[in-house]
Amino acid sequence: MKDKDFALEMIDRLNELLEYNEEVRADISEFYRCVHESRPGTVTHPTLQVQLGTNHLSFIGLLNGIAGKITKEGPLKGIGLIAAKFNDDDLIEKFVLTEDLF
Q: Strand ranges (DSSP E) for the chain?
């Protein structure tokens, strides 16, 4: 399975979780914002994505460490395949492919 296909499967499953009820959506949205101060070995990991300038590992950085990153040449190269789209209430509306946001 290619990274993009795997990411799409993860996105479908994450979105199913969000659709269960609004409490699940709120909890996942909160969990999305969790960050952890990374150790040096995590910062240099080839797939885990830490926030630049802070070296924090986030929920989305972990997801993209599992799913993979964009390998196609262009401005998004190296960015994680999965992103979240938020609604006006600052809750995750849905997970999407990063490239679909641009």
A: 35-37, 50-51, 56-58, 82-86, 92-97
Q: Total domain count for the chain?
A: 1
Nearest CA-CA partner of 92 in 66, 63, 68, 49: 63
Confidence of residue 1 (pLDDT cuts 50, 70, 90): low
Q: What is the pLDDT of residues 46-76, one digit of tens each?
A: 889 998 888 999 999 999 999 999 999 999 9
- Distance in angstroms (rounded) separating the CA atoms of residues 42 and 7: 21
Decide: helix, strand or coil at residue 20: coil
Give me the domain span that covers residue 87.
3-101
